[in-house]
């Protein structure tokens, strides 16, 4: 929208609350601020009971703040959703102010509007040496104040606890074929202390690629039987699917992945070993300095 290469979008995000593990109190507050006033406007009338005009989600990077807002926008189907990338606005030195003006004007023209400003610290951090950057920040503050949209509610989105981390592993695996048990997921949650949701998504992606790499490096394959009908009452099987194997395996056939016929490769399970190896080779992105800054912000600016 506005001809600015995706800086501002008005499409409904394809993210649901189920895509965000844990954070129940944050979800409740967001729904209280947006969904309840939309469904029951009679409850939010007068001067003393009004929905929050502005909400700030803060916390370590990669904890799901953006997905929370996208899930909220998805549920709030009757609102116009504006997504703003602060870094892209800040990089457009010549028209950043005009873009902000256009954004807030468009939002005012819609009866119910939601503006999501991603990485707002990039827009409203310390003024740089550039005059244009200061003008963008000033324009943003004017627009917020002009609409009485000062940040009234500040909500911390923390690093996930062990139980939530286990759930994130499940969400990230999705429908991928794997051999992990409930005990495995519990163990993964316990051994990833300090990992953010983003960190876990990277770990899972790396683990899911490990079976693919085994296919790429394999020199021997063997035929296996696989049910082609998922109904347990049916017994139809396909017995010419192939999986990587060792040279000593019975029925081993010498070939490379490039020799495999199309649709004859059996998808290999992601294993607990794949997960553990991926975790062992990954360094969490959230630092002690990040956590310190969150605590300082909470101490200095959060009163509720």
UniProtKB/TrEMBL annotation:
One of its GO terms (biological process) is endosomal transport. Residues 51-161 form the AAA+ ATPase domain. InterPro entries: AAA+_ATPase, ATPase_AAA_core, MT-severing_AAA_ATPase, P-loop_NTPase, Spast_Vps4_C. The keyword ATP-binding applies. Keywords: ATP-binding, Nucleotide-binding. Gene3D superfamilies: 1.10.8.60, P-loop containing nucleotide triphosphate hydrolases. PANTHER family: AAA DOMAIN-CONTAINING, VACUOLAR PROTEIN SORTING-ASSOCIATED PROTEIN 4A. This is Vacuolar 4b protein sorting-associated protein.
């Amino acid at each position: 929208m506005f001809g600015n290469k995706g800086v501002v979008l008005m499409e409904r995000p394809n993210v649901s609350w189920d895509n965000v593990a844990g954070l129940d109190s944050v979800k409740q507050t967001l729904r209280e601020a947006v969904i309840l006033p939309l469904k029951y406007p009679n409850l939010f009338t007068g001067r003393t009971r009004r929905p929050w005009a502005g909400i700030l989600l803060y916390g370590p990077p990669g904890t799901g703040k953006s997905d929370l807002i996208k899930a909220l926008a998805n549920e709030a189907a009757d609102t116009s959703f504006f997504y703003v990338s602060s870094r892209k606005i800040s990089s457009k030195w010549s028209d950043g102010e005009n873009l902000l003006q256009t954004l807030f004007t468009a939002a005012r023209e819609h009866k119910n509007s939601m503006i999501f400003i991603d990485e707002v610290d990039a827009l409203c951090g310390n003024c740089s040496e550039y005059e244009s950057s200061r003008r963008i920040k000033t324009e943003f503050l004017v627009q917020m104040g002009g609409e009485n949209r000062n940040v009234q509610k500040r909500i911390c989105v923390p690093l996930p606890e062990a139980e939530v981390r286990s759930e994130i592993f499940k969400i990230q695996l999705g429908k991928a074929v794997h051999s992990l048990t409930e005990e495995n997921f519990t163990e993964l949650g316990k051994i990833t202390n300090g990992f953010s949701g983003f960190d876990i998504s990277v770990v899972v992606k790396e683990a899911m690629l490990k079976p693919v790499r085994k296919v790429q490096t394999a020199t021997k394959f063997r035929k296996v039987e696989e049910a082609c009908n998922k109904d347990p009452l049916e017994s139809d099987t396909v017995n010419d699917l192939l999986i990587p194997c060792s040279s000593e395996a019975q029925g081993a056939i010498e070939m490379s992945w490039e020799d495999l016929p199309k649709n004859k490769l059996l998808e290999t399970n992601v294993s607990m070993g794949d997960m553990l190896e991926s975790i062992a080779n990954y360094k969490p992105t959230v630092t002690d300095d990040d956590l310190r800054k969150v605590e300082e912000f909470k101490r200095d600016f959060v009163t509720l």
